[in-house]
């Protein structure tokens, strides 16, 4: 009798297809036939570099990321990135400022956290509720911002 899988509607990791889990299980012991687990692999090895390069390539293709954009692989959850992004990027330009598009609770938290590291501007008029994304024509972007 096959065990019934639990449904997960919570925030965070999503439910994965059985085929993906089985592939991960197989490669957990012997990644791609190289004789070691990906968990045992040096982050400096050529095999690990192949994983990173392929992952970046697939992300660029899936999300249509232009070549003049950097793809950052960062550890930690979303809330940790609210600090990590401004801590690392807000100083890219002399004005130490960033533009934020606040469309809900999480982006509002990100903008608030970024205020610890520099000047933050919300690029669109204040919204009473988060039911839509403001039209880009209503945004006022700061050319001195280190990032949006």
Strand content: 5-15%
User: What fraction, in percent, of the residue positions are helical?
Assistant: 25-40%
Radius of gyration: 20 Å
Output the structural class.
mainly alpha
Number of helices: 4
Task: Characterise this structure.
Helices cover 35% and strands 5% of the residues. The protein is mainly alpha-helical. Among the domains are: 18-63, no CATH class; 86-138, no CATH class. The protein is extended, with a radius of gyration of 20 Å. The termini are far apart.
Question: Which SSEs are present, and which pair or pack?
Answer:
Elements: H1 18-29, H2 46-63, H3 78-89, E1 97-100, H4 105-114, E2 119-122
Parallel strand pairs: 1-2
Helix pairs in contact: 3-4
Please outline what is shown here.
Keywords: Pyridoxal phosphate, Transferase. The chain is mainly alpha-helical and 148 residues long. It has helices at residues 18-29, 46-63, 78-89, 105-114, and strands spanning 97-100, 119-122.
Task: Quickly list its features.
148 residues, mainly alpha, 35% helix, extended
């Amino acid at each position: 009798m096959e065990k019934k899988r639990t449904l997960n509607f919570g925030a965070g990791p999503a439910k994965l297809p059985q085929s993906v889990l089985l592939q991960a299980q197989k490669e957990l012991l012997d990644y791609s036939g190289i004789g070691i687990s990906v968990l045992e692999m040096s982050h400096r090895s050529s095999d690990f570099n192949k994983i990173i390069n392929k992952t970046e390539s697939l992300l660029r293709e899936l999300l249509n990321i232009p070549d003049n954009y950097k793809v950052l692989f960062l550890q930690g959850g979303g809330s940790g990135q609210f600090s990590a992004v401004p801590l690392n990027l807000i100083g890219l330009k002399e004005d130490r400022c960033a533009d934020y598009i606040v469309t809900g609770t999480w982006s509002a938290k990100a903008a608030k956290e970024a205020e610890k590291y520099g000047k933050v501007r919300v690029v669109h008029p204040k919204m009473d509720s988060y039911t839509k994304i403001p039209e880009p024509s209503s945004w006022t972007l700061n050319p001195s911002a280190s990032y949006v």
